[in-house]
Design a protein that fits this description.
The complex is a heterodimer of chains A (282) and B (303). By secondary structure, chain A is α/β, with parallel strands linked by helices. In chain A, 34% of the residues lie in helices and 26% in strands. Chain A starts with 7 loop residues before the first strand and ends in a 13-residue tail after the last strand. The chains are: A alpha/beta (282), B alpha/beta (303).
Chain lengths: 282, 303
Amino acid sequence: MGEQSGAQNAWDMLSDEQSQKHITTGSGDLNDILGGGIHCKEVTEIGGVPGVGKTQLGIQLAINVQIPVEYGGLGGKAVYIDTEGSFMVERVYQIAEGCIRDILEHFPHSHEKSSSGQKQLQPEHFLADIYYFRICSYTEQIAVINYLEKFLGEHKDVRIVVIDNVTFHFRQDFEDLALRTRVLSGLSLKLMKIAKTYNLAVVLLNQVTTKFTEGSFQLTLALGDSWSHSCTNRLILYWNGNERYAHLDKSPSLPVASAPYAVTGKGIRDAVSSHHKRARVT
Amino acid sequence: MAAAGGGGGGGGRATTSGCGLKRRYAPHDQEEETMNQDQSSKEDWCGRLWNGMDLLKDVTENKHVLPTGLEGIDTLLGGGLRQGQLTEVTGPSSSGKTQVCLHSASHAAVKHMGVVMYLDTSNSFSPSRIATIIDGTNDLSDQRGFDLPHKERLKTMMRSIVCKSVFDIFGMFEVLHQLEVSLLNDKVKSGGRKICLLIVDSISSLLAPIIGGKYPQGRSMMISVAMILKKLAYKHNLSVLVTNHMVSAGNGAVKPALGESWKAVPHVRLVISREHGSNICTATVLKHTLLASGRTAKFVVPS
């Protein structure tokens, strides 16, 4: 069989895959069902009702991707594309502080070593390494995704792109539904290509809507059927009573599974019964 | 001898938009050439005439099936993916389409049937999943009976699966063109094995951005890629497996994507679904060249 540029055999890809680092979510249980964390070179969709913690998880990942290599992280930067204005900088600062505190707890003696070039663990540095885009319409969204390729070519240390949330501007005021499907399919292919080419994780946050099927209301992701194939992995965040749960709904290599998690003052953490947890507000 | 099979008859006279234009002759020149040639050369252009008995002999001797490794599906398919044919697997999100593709690739690798080419549009090709599936088959002994170490056997098998990411329809045309050229030139890789299975997961995500609009170019590209896939299957005796997704059909129902024109393209169409929270899936035959449609079977995707 002839040479195909860019083709790799499965054996070579296996060693690449096994040496890939994953982006921790902050919760050990959540990392476990994800196979270690959010995968690079893949597009992961995270869906849930408002208030369940999608933006919190998005921000947590934008911080955790920056955990330096010497502490087990990727040491990368983040791109955060905000469509609704949910990115609260004060909260990001809090989460960065929480992340640093946990690192120092885990690696108590490391801050004594001072090798040249080792970054000081400051929340300011974490904030500085998030590239933030605020978009207000679907045309801006299309434009920024088209621009990303050039941007990422110039900023090769970006290891995560979070879009919060990807379908918001396409849900209202888009009269031609067939055109909407075409545009969104095109965007999802571009995002797949970006994830693969620049070896980063693309995380798409998505709203959940109610759909009336088989005589009852069911919660489905916004833009359901036509969009549902446009991701490599899908994680659904939901409420089980007063507990937050994450359900891995789609993955090429991992089994379907659920795990509890909590939103605390420090960010996303394991669900241990503690009064630090943020309660459900409905 | 010009072995232009039935699919190649007419030498690409019909130029379809957008693909491999360099290789095609302009319609005008082709016809003039054909007119001016003598009778025997004209027959070369038409390809060989087959009679019924030739065809039957060819089918029984040369057209084998490639089992997917998933029992329920193989039963429904009458053994597996037939060589020379295009099989489509369609279904809602996370119903198991990619798993069927990964299992087919792994099974072909384990049985040393040849090289598998896997074209991936959603970064879903998972080498670790392939390794798990191959390990699970407990059939890692070399065909010649030598007892190679486990890792060596896994390595040989996995090296016969080649994966390429494709993110737009033009990239797909390019890849298929390169494949066609290399097969025609009969370039043989070290190991001397030919491609036996071509998987496209999924063809519908490449076509979704271009079909359905006011202009017909998208649809003609879809038909174009369909013809190229079927031609490759026919001329080079490959099994071709593609996946398709579902779209809404009104009133909450779903139907396979790609519309009416696509329905006639695959030789075999299966629709699969998975019960929520389990790994038991159901497959139904929508279309088959030999067997009755409507038959259903359950299959399990092992973890």
